[in-house]
Design brief:
mainly alpha
């Protein structure tokens, strides 16, 4: 099996880091912090907005991870 280039491996690791790090941040820091917002509707709005913004980046990162995995990263 051939070895992937350094940029390909770097992109692969970056994609994994974004997906795992973002998800852990959301579960450990974001969700509990938003619980301090008293009004349920506002809390839901903030959470939905934050996760939708991350979803865009997370989807791109997942695509990069999958593509670089296919290249042998």
């Amino acid at each position: 099996m051939r070895q992937a280039s350094t940029p390909v491996r770097s992109l692969h690791k970056m994609g994994l880091g974004i997906n795992l790090g973002g998800t852990i941040f959301g579960l450990v820091a974001l969700n509990p912090s938003v619980a301090r917002i008293g009004e349920r509707r506002k809390r839901g709005f903030v959470l939905n907005e934050a996760w939708m913004r991350f979803q865009t980046i997370g989807t791109l990162a997942m695509g990069v991870t999958a593509a670089t995995w296919r290249l042998g990263a």
